[in-house]
Specification:
Layout: E1 6-12, E2 15-21, E3 32-34, E4 42-44, H1 47-61, H2 67-81
Antiparallel strand pairs: 1-2, 3-4
Helix pairs in contact: 1-2
Length: about 120
């Protein structure tokens, strides 16, 4: 049964995007791998982090070969790759500097979350 969710539109500069609005959760969700029930894991990127990632991606696509930008985008690659499950997980060759872990001890074994500039903070 498909759950009913609402959506809203958000405008940022000249861009207008539809945003799905889901019920709140008791804890703040940090940027990283997230899994809802038994669905496939995905990546949640907080708005402030999304803006920073977008600026880094734009700089890289515009030809800026900056070591800091490469480090941040390598972390993003590790976070995205950490959501791949099953046989496909072994098909993606990770960048040698990608920062991934096995995630929290109660997380599904194949779910990994990135660590780096946007890693969840304890406390």
């Amino acid at each position: 049964m498909k759950s009913k969710t609402k959506s809203t539109t958000r405008k940022a500069g000249s861009l207008t995007r539809e945003v799905r609005v889901l019920p709140g959760v008791p804890e703040r969700v940090e940027t990283g791998a997230v899994q809802f029930g038994d669905d496939w894991p995905g990546v949640f990127i907080r708005g402030d982090n999304a803006g920073y990632y977008a600026m880094c991606l734009k700089s890289m696509l515009d030809g800026d070969d900056n070591a800091m930008i490469r480090m941040i985008l390598t972390d993003l690659q590790g976070t995205l790759a950490g959501c791949i499950q099953g046989p496909a997980a072994s098909l993606l060759e990770m960048h040698p500097n990608a920062c991934v872990s096995d995630g929290p001890s109660d997380a599904p074994k194949q779910t990994r979350s990135g660590h780096g500039p946007f890693a969840a903070r304890n406390g």
